[in-house]
Amino acid sequence: MLVQLDHAADGGLILAAVAAGADSVLADGSALEPNANADFVAGVVRSLAGTGVTVEAELGALPGDEDDAGAAAGADAAAGMTDPLRVPEFLAASGADLLAVAVGNVHGNYRGEPKLDWKRVADVRAGAAGVPLVLHGASGLPETDLRAAAAAGIGKVNINTELRTSTLAAVERALPGLRAAGENMLGLQQAWTSSAGATAGWALSLLDAAPAGTGSSSS
Ligand SMILES: [Zn+2]
User: With 90 as the cut, is the pLDDT of residue 38 above it?
Assistant: First the structure.
């Protein structure tokens, strides 16, 4: 089990998180021009040299808000998609261990049917020379897409909305009984934890079942 600091654009915050025990950080310079983004990530990689902390970078820009599951996705996702031609230089300059990509994925809820650009995934992967790719905004993708992502070389998927939705629903279901049972706060915590665990287990079982190695999807 690892703890990751997600989407941090502040080098000081990244160092504070690592000091507090984070195993992995997303040095998010995706709002910057690609060269400035690579410089920012390279600075983080240098400052964490020898710590064993994994540094993720993001090239391209995801629509939506990673802190708000209700933020609807924009339809203009294509504008900020990861450019495969920039990937080799970006990874060489930044030294990132993981690369988050924008390939039609969004933060928050998908408006309409999600449509991932599998050709772009393949092209980015070819340019990434073995650096694992990361798919943010995996919530809301159909199970076929999650399986296809694993088969297409995505090494990590970020799932959030399903965790929030299932956890809040489990808490809601448990509340009347917990109130009646002497306002059982420990039971509340247990309902929360077991629901989150079950949702994470569902996602992991899907990804584990995906065929390994190269592949592309028809979806
Ligand atoms: Zn994200």
Answer: yes
Q: pTM score, two decimals? A: 0.85
- Name the token pair of 67: 């802190």
Per-residue pLDDT, 111: 83
What domains can be seen in the chain, in order of their start residue?
Answer: 4-159 (3.20.20.70)
Average pLDDT, the chain: 89
Beta bridge partners of 99: 57, 133
CA of 156 to the centre of ligand 1 (A): 11
Backbone phi, psi, residue 74, to 5°: -80, 160
Query: Tokens at residue 115, please?
Result: 């449509």
* Ligand 1 centre distance from Cα of residue 214 (Å): 24
Which residues are 84's β-sheet partners? Answer: none
Contacts of 36 (CB under 8 A, 6+ apart): 29
- If you measure from the C-alpha of residue 49 to the centroid of ligand 1, how many angstroms do you get, rounded to a whole number? 24
Whole-number percent of the chain with pLDDT over 90: 72
Rg (C-alpha) for the chain, rounded Å, is 19
163 neighbors 66 (Cβ within 8 angstroms): no
Task: Write out pLDDT tens, residues 58-74.
Answer: 999 887 766 665 554 44
Of how many residues is the chain composed? 219
Token pair, residue 51, equals 């710590």
Q: Please, are residues 217 and 145 in contact by the beta-carbon 8 Å criterion?
A: yes
**What band does 219 get if pLDDT is binned at 50, 70 and 90?**
very low
Catalytic (active site) residue 23 = no
